[in-house]
Amino acid sequence: MTRTPAGFVAFLLIAAAISAPRPAPASPAAMVAVNRCNAQMIGTLEDQIRGYDAHPPRGDAGDLQKRFNDINEILAALGQERNIVDSVCSGDAAKAPLFAQLGTVAAWGLALESDIALRLDQPCTPAAKAIGQALIAQAWLDLANVVNASAPATPAPDVASMAPRVQTRAASLSFTLPAYADTSAYWRDQIAAQAKAAVQACATPAPSPSPTSGVLRIVRK
């Protein structure tokens, strides 16, 4: 199997998918509001993620990579949809449930991507685990943003149902998640930096064994 460490660093860029600013399509605001503020588009994207969850990809690398790319496109669409909602829907009361749905669907997609990262097992097993942790960190941040924005009110039921999915994956990765109140972009960025370092370590050639040392450090490529 071809190993391309640089390509897998791109996995970590998913962290910005839901929050990165994206220009809204050039459409009259009233028309966009009718189509977007009723959550119809978000629901369509959520249905796609639900379908992917119900039908996991096959085990070959090509199918796994294609599924990862397909989910990535949905995450990008969710990021664009968030900007549209923020621009055309009026009032925090109208936006809050839409933002909550966007955050939970994004977390769902990221959780599925973490599964794929582990199955691909590239560029090496420690890096694949670190990439999975970085994706879960972003998923947890998406949920935390919803919960923290709604405090002290009870967050949307979708968050309560999604949190165990993320927590289960975190536990399988031996990854401790902070409390929602302690979850931040800074924390997420630290996890992403660790994953990037793990990917780079996989690409580093193993040093020649020292004649005076009985320990040989093996780096899997």
Topology of this structure?
Blueprint: H1 5-9, H2 29-36, H3 40-54, H4 61-88, H5 92-120, H6 125-150, H7 157-172, H8 185-203
Helix pairs in contact: 2-4, 3-4, 3-5, 4-5, 5-6, 5-7, 6-7, 6-8
Count of spatially separate domains: 1
Shape: globular
Task: Report the mean per-residue pLDDT as an integer.
Answer: 81
Structural class: mainly alpha
Helix content: 55-70%
Please count the helical segments. 8
Largest sheet: none
Count of β-strands: 0
Unreliably modeled segments: 1-9, 11-28, 208-221
Give the topology string: H per helix, E per strand. Answer: HHHHHHHH
Span of the ends, CA to CA? 11 Å
Rg for CA atoms:
19 Å
**Strand share of the residues?**
under 5%
Can you offer a commentary on this structure?
With 221 residues, the chain is an all-alpha fold. It contains 8 helices and no strands. The radius of gyration is 19 Å and the shape is globular.
